[in-house]
Please model this.
Amino acid sequence: MKTLILSLCLYYTAALLHEMAHAMVAIWCSVRVKGVRFRWGSLAIVREAGGPVANLSISLAGPALSLLIAWLVWPYFDAFGWANLCVGICNLLPIRGSDGERAIACMEAMGWVRRSRRIDPRLRWLRARGYSDIDLALLTVAEDRSKA
Model:
């Protein structure tokens, strides 16, 4: 039980620092932060939309701080290092609602990345179940590789 409580404390501390980084960069970019909310067992900031460059900076600030903290504290407190590493990497994954997906959308808006909007008709039912464009593109690429 003590291990579970310690793990939860480490995770929520890492998540709070992650969200504070988002909020600090948002304030620095003159984007109004409305608050922090508890969502899906984690924390998230609520803010106004900014431009693509500001949104990219804000999206990458949290994972960058989490990975920096993991690197800095690892030799002294590896459990907190693990917590920050997990928070940082999981938020960089391009899944729906993550910092990674928002960062890719910002890079696309700036013309740095080009995503195909064409969806394989056989995968439309996945879109209806909440899969993002990135998820569908990865499934299409995996299917193309299996045919080769």
Summary: Residues 2-109 form one domain. The chain has two domains: 2-109, 116-148. The first strand starts at residue 33 and ends at 39. The mean pLDDT is 80.
